[in-house]
Amino acid sequence: MEILEQRLRGRGTDKEEAIVQRLAQAKNELDFAKTPGAHDKIIVNDDLEKAWKEFEEFCVPESA
User: Fold this and answer.
1) How far apart are CA 40 and CA 59, in angstroms?
2) What residues contact residue 26 under an 8 Å CB cut-off, 6+ apart?
3) What is the pLDDT of residue 61?
4) Sorting pLDDT into bands at 50, 70 and 90, what band is 62?
5) C-beta of residue 43 within 8 angstroms of C-beta of residue 32
6) CA torsion, points 41, 35, 44, 17, in degrees to nearest 10?
7) Is the alpha carbon torsion for 20, 26, 28, 30 positive or negative?
């Protein structure tokens, strides 16, 4: 959340009210993401090639 806030504020394009709303929505989404069974697959995009491979394998499984 701290990094998101830094990025939003660093842009200098949004009003304070918009930043507060976006941070509140991000918190809601992160809280929901912790709900068991809310997602079929979670892919962490910290390595683009690895993330793409996981996405592709999940969305386009090889035929048996």
Assistant:
1) 11
2) 1, 4
3) 78
4) confident
5) no
6) 130
7) negative
Residue-wise pLDDT tens digits, 9-49: 999 999 999 999 999 999 999 999 999 999 999 999 999 99
Closest by Cα among 33, 47, 44, 41 to 61? 41
The set of residues, in sequence order, having a beta carbon less than 8 Å from that of 4 and lying 6+ positions away, is 22, 23, 26
CB of 12 within 8 A of CB of 4? no
**Which amino acid is located at 38 in the chain?**
A
Provide CB contacts within 8 A for 35, sequence distance 6+: none
